[in-house]
Amino acid sequence: MTSRSPTFRMMTIEGHTVRVAHWPAPAGGGLPLFFFNGIGANIELMAPLADHLPDREILTFDMPGIGGSPAPAFPYRPWMMARVAAAILDEHGHKQTDVMGVSWGGAMAQQFALQYGSRIGRLILVATTAGMLMIPGKVASLSKMFDPKRYSDPDYMLRNFETLYGGASNAGAAAHALRTKPPTRMGYMMQMVAMLGWTSAPCLPFMRTDTLILMGDADNIVPVINGRFLKLLIPHARLEIIEGGGHLFLLSMAETVVPIIEEFLSGDEPLRQAA
After folding, report:
1. Any bridge partners for residue 236, and if so which?
2. Is 196 exposed, middle or buried (0-12, 13-18, 19+ CB in 10 A)?
3. Which residues pair with 242 in a beta bridge?
4. How does residue 102 score in pLDDT terms, banded at 50, 70 and 90?
5. Is 152 a known active-site residue?
6. CA 206, CA 235: separation in Å to the nearest integer?
7. Quick one: pLDDT band at residue 27, thresholds 50, 70, 90?
8. Which letter, b or e, does each residue of 237-273 get, where b requires 16 or more Cβ atoms within 10 Å of its Cβ?
9. Which of 3, 69, 103, 118 is catalytic?
10. What is the per-residue pLDDT for 145?
11. What confidence tens digit (pLDDT) does each residue in 42-64 have?
């Protein structure tokens, strides 16, 4: 596995200034992959994924007040951040993209797919839900997830890593903590508030995007049933359950998960035809 370094730039889009990361790739690598991160998570936390996908161009950005992005100037909703993502794609000359989102970012990925369906090739939803209709995980995990201390205090994160994320995810706890940059309090709060009352459920049956849903069967935050609910609603969806996968299985079990992602993204036969 070869380590890749992104180029960073600051962009101001519709009043929000965000830090954008871009991993270029060799020509002929297919559509770029636009990534939406989890709540409070900075770009560096997902950076190892780029090392596992060396032939894929990847774009992502820190939400306002998260990572290297300054605090939001005003509250925002998912549709606003979808517009930011679309502007980033425009700036890099892309009319279409594959999209992946994990946890909170999986909800954002759904919003983007519903808002910009003509711009999406394939969609990957990781450890996520349909929004306010989610079946919650363990109370002990959720109480710690909503505490921004997990990002600002490495010792706190390490002590509570297994309780927070579950599964085999504690294998990479130390490296995860080192890549963490604490969000601003305003940024973290605004990111939580952004999804209040949001759900994709009424719209998902009308989505025509080929979708891969990845869920961990040991996820303490987002139980597998949420993935089954998404699979039920999305017409052209495939559900893969990762055995032993905690909430961070995308990174902690990359050797298992990445081949599934690569096979899905490079597949020639659309799920709508297979169905």
Report:
1. none
2. exposed
3. 216
4. very high
5. no
6. 8
7. confident
8. bbbeebeebbbbbbbbbbeebbeebeebbeeeeebee
9. 103
10. 56
11. 999 899 999 999 999 999 999 99
Residue 123 to residues 19, 75, 142, 160, 221, Cα–Cα distance (Å): 23, 27, 26, 31, 22
Tell me the whole-structure pTM to 2 decimals. Answer: 0.88
- Strands, sheet with 33-36, edge to edge from the N-terminal-most edge strand: 7-13, 16-23, 58-61, 33-36, 97-102, 120-126, 210-216, 237-242
Element housing 85 (H / E):
helix 78-91
Computed from CA positions of residues 127, 130, 134, 135, in that sequence, does the dihedral angle turn out positive or negative?
A: negative
Contact 174, 248 (CB under 8 A): no
Question: Per 3-state DSSP, what percentage of the chain is helix, strand, and coil (rounded to 5)?
Answer: 45, 20, 40
Tell me whether residue 91 is exposed, middle or buried, using C-beta atoms within 10 angstroms of its C-beta: 0 to 12, 13 to 18, 19 or more.
middle
Which amino acid appears at position 248 of this protein? L
C-alpha radius of gyration, the chain, whole number? 17
Rounded distance between C-alpha atoms, residue 37 and residue 60, angstroms: 8
pLDDT at 220: 86
Give the burial string for 121-148 (b: 16+ CB within 10 Å, else e).
ebbbbbbbbbbeebeebbeebeebbebb
What is the secondary structure of 12-54 as a DSSP string? EETTEEEEEEEE---TTS-S-EEEE--TT--HHHHHHHHHH-T
Contacts of 196 (CB under 8 A, 6+ apart): 132
Per-residue pLDDT of 228-257, as tens digits, reads 999 999 999 999 999 999 888 998 889 999
Report the alpha-carbon distance of residue 31 to residue 209 in Å, rounded. 15
**pLDDT value at residue 25:** 87
Q: Count each helix (H run) and each strand (E run) in the chain, helices first.
A: 12, 8
If one counts every other C-beta atom within 10 angstroms of the C-beta of residue 174, the result is 12
